[in-house]
Structure formats: C-alpha cells, structure tokens
Amino acid sequence: MWRRPFPWLIVVAALLFALVPYFTNDVGMRESLLLAAIYIILASNLNLMIGYAGYVNFGNIVFFGLGGYICLYLVTAWHVHVIVAALIGGVAVSAVALLFGTGILRLRGAFFALATIGVNQAVQQLVVNFEPWGGATGIYLSLDSYKPFGGPMQALWWMYLLIVLLTAASMLLSYVIKNSKFGLGLIAIGQNEDAAAVLGVPTARYKALVYSASAFLPAMAGGLYFFKSGIIEPGAAFNLEQSIEAIVMLMLGGAGTILGPALGAVLYEEMRGILLTTQYLSHFQLVIAGVLLLIIVQFVPGGLLGWLHRLWPRTRGWLQ
Amino acid sequence: MSELLVVNDISKRFGGLQAVSHLSLTVNEGEILGLIGPNGAGKSTVFNLINGVYAPDTGSVEFAGQDITGMPPHRVARLGLARAHQIVQPLGALSVLENCTVGACFGRENLPLAEARETAREMATKVGLGDRLDLIASSLTTAGKKRLELARALSARPKLLLLDEVLAGLNPTETEQMIATVRQIRASGIAILMIEHIMRAVMSLSDRIVVLNLGAKLAEGTPQEVAENPEVITAYLGDSTIMQAAEASP
Ligand SMILES: Nc1ncnc2c1ncn2[C@@H]1O[C@H](COP(=O)(O)OP(=O)(O)OP(=O)(O)O)[C@@H](O)[C@H]1O
Ligand SMILES: [Mg+2]
Question: ipTM of the predicted structure?
C-alpha cells in the first residue's frame, strides 16, 4: 500500500492539518479545522455505506453519539484513560452495529434508510431514560478528567491531534477498502445486489461487515469530541441534522470516491461558517443544505469529483 | 459419464401460478444439455431454482455430489456453478474488466484481486471483449452485454455454466461468433445447461434436449428424437422451425 502516492498524500495532508494550527498557536483555526476533521470522519465513513455498498444510512450519527456516551461514561464512572475509553467505545459500537446490521440490512432502499432513522431515534430515547448516563441532562466531565494531559488547554490540543489522526485513518480505510476484494464486492453490491450474489459475493456478510466498519472511527471520534466538549447530552449526541449534513457533504464531494467526501466536508464547513455569520441566513442552514442536496442529486449525481471525472476522463485514474 | 447436476422433482409456485412442476433432469460432465420450451414455460425459473435465487417448493438439487437445495446463490457460485442472465445484469458503473474480476474473485477459485484480474482479462479476451476492457459496462451494446455476461460467468472458472438465451437479440454474424464461443467453452471441459429459443443453434449445439411446457417436462432425448416427438410439435403449435432445424442439424 505504501508504494502508491495516495496514502502518502493523506499522511502529508494530515500532518499539515495537525501542525499548522499548533505551531502558529491559532486556537480559532484549530476549532474550525476540528469541525472540518469531524465532518470528514463522518462523511468518509458514511461513504463506505452509501458510496460503496449503495445503502443510505440516514441515522449514521448514532455511531458518533453512542461512542461519545460510552467514552464519557468510562472516563467519569470508571476513570479509564480517554484514549482507551474511546477505543472501547469504537469496538463496542462496531460490535453492536454488526449485530444490528445483520438484521436491518435485509431491508433495501428507502426501507433501510427509514430503519436507520428509527435506530437513531430509539437509541436516543433509551439514553434519555437511562439514569446511569445522566438521562436527559447527560454526562458532565469535571476538570479533573483533563489532568492526565496537564490541564484543559493541553487536553484540547491533544484531542485535536487525535481527531486529525482519526481523520487520516478514515481516509486510509476508504482507500484500503476500495482497493481490496472486499471493496470490489461492496461496489458490486452497490451496483446490483442480486447479480453480485449470483456472482458469489456473500452479500449479507459483506453488508453487515461494512456497516460495522463504518461505525468504528466515528464512534471513536465521538468519544474524543465529547471529551473535548466536557459534556454530552442526548440532543447533541443523536442530532439527526448532523446525519443529514453528512449525507450532503458526501454527495457534494462525490459518493464512492475517496477524496470526494473530504472535499465535500471542507466545502460544507466553509459554507456553514458563512451562513452562520450572515444575519438573515443563519436560521436557514438546514433548508439550504436540503436544497443543495436536491440540486446535486438531480443535476450532478456524481458530486464534484464525478463532475470532474466526466469533464476530464483522465482524472478518473489518479483523482480517486 | 458421471452426473454433475441432478435435479430431482423440483416445483415452484408463484401465487396461483405453478411455474415449475415436478421437474427432474440431469447434466453430465462435459455435456451440453438444451432446455427449450415456449415463452413462460418456466425455463428461467428452473435456473433460479438451481442456483439458489429461489428455494424449490418440492424436490432437491444436487451439484458435484453435494446437496445444494435451498443454498444461497453466493455459495452455489463458490461451488462452481456460474450463470449468464437472460436479462443482462451488468454492474453498470464498473468497467468490463472489473465486472469479470468480480466473477473471478468470488467464483470457484476464490482468487485474490491481482490474480482475479488476470483471469478476468483472459476470459474477456476469450469472448471477444479484449479491446473493450476499460469500457464502462453500461455503455456496451446489447451484444457486448451478452458477451460480458458470458465472460463474467467464465471468469469464475465454473464446472457448469447456465446460459439463459445468450443468443437472443444478436444479429446473424454475432450469433455465429457466439455459437463458436460456446463450442470452445465446452471443448475446454465445462458442462453447459442452455436455454435457447433459436432452434437451429440449440439443435446443433446440444447433446441432449429437455422440453418444458407449462412448467413440466414434455419430452427428453437427442435433438433428432425431440424434433420428431409429436407432442413437442403440438406444443410449438405450428411452429415449423423446430422441424427445419432438426433436418438441418447433422
Ligand atoms: N418472481 C416471480 N413472481 C411471479 N411470477 C413469476 C416470477 N418469475 C417468473 N414468474 C412467472 O412464471 C412463469 C415462468 O416464467 P419464466 O421466466 O421461468 O419463463 P421462461 O420459460 O423463462 O420464459 P421466456 O422464454 O419468456 O424467458 C411466467 O408466467 C412468469 O410470469
Ligand atoms: Mg426466460
């Protein structure tokens, strides 16, 4: 894998992402890059489901939220180190996804999409009524939790660097899967599931596996993100709006490509920043996202990268 | 000759329609068995019952000595049973080579990606798609898509090929080429169960023929025997092509 230029490109980009705000000590830049990094993680992992396997996971944010809850619970109640806690969160959410996935992935098309919304809402309701996790008020961290890092300021930088690491891992995961037999099977499923099965692709197993794989890094990112915030509550953890935004980013950049979701995430983050600071538009962010999604699906279903590929077919080879 | 596929007493009902009823047939190793019958006779459904797309209501299917009744299609494919669809099913956004690579990766040999690509290239070239390897499958012509079905099935290196009307919609030249390809495939030792409407072709290619009508077996035998069977002639109701084809075949 390291003989190709692409993985190195990811590593260099991640280093720049991580080091530029650090050495310029620019907290403002860090915060906006952090948001972009989270978006890339969400969109990139969602791409494994939507772009590769062709299954629209509308409730994808459930992984992020659940990972956040498990992590913060372990940190506060069991005093587990946050990195270990986030890892446990990732593994646990992946395992649950594997179990759930085997069931709901029997549904196809819109039925699957609806079921995933149901999963997110059901988990949210469960958490609201789950006292050990603070019910509707959620879990708060005390400042003590940041001690292992030498204080809150340092902890924030650490979380930023770790999240950038997860972003790079997400991109590399997309790359590795796309260039593997597993990935070819997934893309075959996305194209024509029945034909794929007749060709020998173990469709049920592959779908459950990719659903589970697409849960891991977002769940870990949720742990680190909410640790950084110092608080997690059901509304913020299982926010369906963010699920939809992740879909918009993915479609904007180009579903099924590796760079597309990252490109879409960064563009969306920029656009969102402009909208939020523009007086008359700040309340219409989601409306605009919805309209954008409609326009993309209708006129440029391949997103930015798909459009570039069509414009210059030669870019298909190296601009994956 | 040993038996490769043994279909025993299978039936399938769709609501009020008995699509297949109590059908038995056998394909021997290295043999071409033709499956013919009027439109809606249940031929494609028989294929769906054999490769696990549907489970039969009655009966059993045995392949290479193993009971595969009700086994899911992907496992049947692994055992070395490949299929070319009547209604072409290209993986539209993938190239010709990638389509065939899927067949090779998940077929009988369960090849790793790099080797699968080599097999795929070889098979695509064998059926005459060698100059279109990087073309996106959805942009192929009908004849091209038919060939792709065949190449993709061959890439799995199957023991038995199910060919569902691979000649339909081809012009005379393309038909001749496809018939030659099918002969080559058989010569390479792969057994073939083929559904075909073009009587001339099926009569000259098949070692034996099974005739299906209203889901049940109407006749079975050599092309000559089948063509002379009065019941078969009645089922085709004045369709004299079957007679002409039989006379034309050696
Ligand atoms: N999934 C299904 N659900 C309901 N009915 C079906 C289904 N599949 C096939 N049938 C019906 O079963 C009958 C047999 O269909 P089948 O496709 O097997 O015929 P065929 O012999 O392949 O015909 P053709 O020569 O036109 O391809 C038809 O009446 C068809 O409408
Ligand atoms: Mg048919």
Answer: 0.92
